[in-house]
Design goal:
The chain is an all-alpha fold. The protein folds into 2 domains: 91 residues, Serine Threonine Protein Phosphatase 5, Tetratricopeptide repeat (Alpha Horseshoe), CATH 1.25.40; 49 residues, no CATH class. Helices cover 85% and strands 0% of the residues. Helix 1 packs antiparallel against helix 2, helix 4 runs antiparallel to helix 5 and helix 6 crosses helix 7. The longest helix is centred in the N-terminal third of the chain and has 38 residues.
């Protein structure tokens, strides 16, 4: 009897892990499609794909980051801020989310919060943040 219970328990755990793997695979497919759409500048549809990814598995910080990026590009800064906040809550080491949230705060006139997020991004990824800032600076003075 104990062996039967043990085998049944093992089977349930294995089925659960297979189901979780399938769910994660679906989430990754949605995110890959979102990235493809972002590359095509189709931010509205990409945001929908990110929403599907979030519904599939709400523990991926990348889903919230990418949807925040889409909302930022669409011009919905409050939705972008909400998603970026959540992405950072899920993964406090995602420097790109801090950089984008800094940009969103700046567009909303929250300069103190913008600088704070920029400093957090710099602490997490000094090289990436420097490249981002240099690109931003030089894009305004080069043809």
């Amino acid at each position: 009897m104990k062996l039967k219970v043990l085998l049944l328990s093992f089977l349930l755990v294995m089925l659960g892990s297979v189901s979780l793997k399938a769910q994660q695979d679906q989430t990754v497919r949605y995110l890959n499609k979102a990235v493809e759409l972002i590359d095509q500048l189709d931010y509205e549809t990409a945001a929908v794909m990110c929403t599907y990814a979030i519904k599939s598995d709400s523990s991926f910080s990348d889903s919230f980051y990418l949807r925040g990026l889409c909302f930022n590009k669409i011009g919905n800064q409050s939705a972008a801020l909400r998603d970026l906040d959540y992405a950072i809550r899920l993964n406090p080491k995602i420097s790109e989310a801090f950089l984008l949230r800094s940009k969103v705060h700046q567009s909303l006139g929250n300069l103190k919060l913008s600088v704070s997020d920029l400093n957090k991004a710099k602490n997490l990824d000094p090289v990436g943040t420097t490249v981002y800032l240099a690109r931003k600076f030089f894009s305004s003075i080069l043809p």
